Amino acid sequence: MALHVALTHRTSYRYDRAVSLGLQTIRLRPAPHARTPVLSYSLTVTTEVGFAIDQPAARVEPGLRLALELCDSAITYRSRYFNVVQAAPVLDLVLADQGNPRGLAFQLVAMHGALDTLDEQDGLTGINNPPRERLAAAGLLAEVESVVGDVHAAADQAAAASGVAGRLARIADAMAALSDRITQRYFALLPEAQSLGVAADLRAGVAA
After folding, report:
1. Is the pTM here over 0.70, yes or no?
2. What's the rounded Cα separation, in Å, for the pair 141 and 120?
3. pLDDT score recorded for residue 157
4. CB contact at 8 A, 188 and 143
5. What integer pLDDT is reported at residue 56 of this predicted model?
6. Looking at per-residue confidence, does 41 or 50 come out higher?
7. What does the buried/exposed string (b/e) look like for 170-198 if buried means 16 or more CB atoms within 10 Å of the residue's CB?
8. What is the 3-state secondary structure (H, E, C) of the chain?
9. What residue segments make up the domains of the chain, in order of their start?
10. 31, 84, 169, 187: which has the highest count of C-beta atoms within 10 A?
């Protein structure tokens, strides 16, 4: 009988004085040459928030509080809005607020800036033809802002918030795909994998 193992890794830092931290990039991706198959893996803010608020509208407030805790933004939220938990402000803080270092939008903007730097080093900074990775990062940011905007504009924000889990899951999938493209373009030493053999010949015949 096959043995399945689940691993959870959490890293935390505590300092005894004020420190200045720069951008940190955390990547989770199984190596393609690993002998042990990886059945599933995840490292995204969007899926955590989507899981937290995927509740009926009447019970969405505990999910919003959980989203604040998962994104380590509860203290920031209380400093702005006291203890009144509302759907639009919570989602704006953890998803669309570009000034919140623990929010998704901050990371997307930082990603776009890092890609700008990499493209500048490669001489690919032309405005008329930006690389698709930068376009994808900008598109994800626009979609995140659209999610929050729709909740903010809704007559019943709690009901609107409870229905965005699917959109956040699609954003998470798009971010995973973007991560793959960034890895392949900027960090992979090997060319993109190609199929060889009989299967590849059959596909080539079908395409012809």
Report:
1. no
2. 21
3. 92
4. no
5. 86
6. 50
7. ebbebbeebbeebeebeeeeeeeeeeeee
8. CCCCCCCCCCCCCCCCCCCCCCCCCCCCCCCCCCCCCCCCCCCCHHHHHHHHHCCCHHHHHHHHHHHHHHCCCHHHHHHHHCCCCCHHHHHHHHHHCCCCCCCHHHHHHHHHHHHHHHHHHCCCCCCCCCCHHHHHHHHHHHHHHHHHHHHHHCCCHHHHHHCCHHHHHHHHHHHHHHHHHHHHHHHCCCCCCCCCCHHHHHHHHHHC
9. 45-187
10. 169
| CA–CA distance, 126 with 146 (Å, rounded to integer) | 27
pLDDT tens readout for residues 166-191: 898 899 888 888 887 877 777 665 55
Q: What is the mean pLDDT of residues 4-12?
A: 63
The reported pLDDT for the residue numbered 5 is: 64
53's tokens? 């608020």
* CB atoms near residue 112 (< 10 Å): 17
**Residue 91 confidence (pLDDT) above 60:** yes
Q: Which residue has the higher pLDDT, 119 or 177?
A: 177
How does residue 193 score in pLDDT terms, banded at 50, 70 and 90? low
**Residues 83-107 as b or e (16 or more Cβ within 10 Å = b):** eebbbbbbbbbbbbbeebebbbbbb
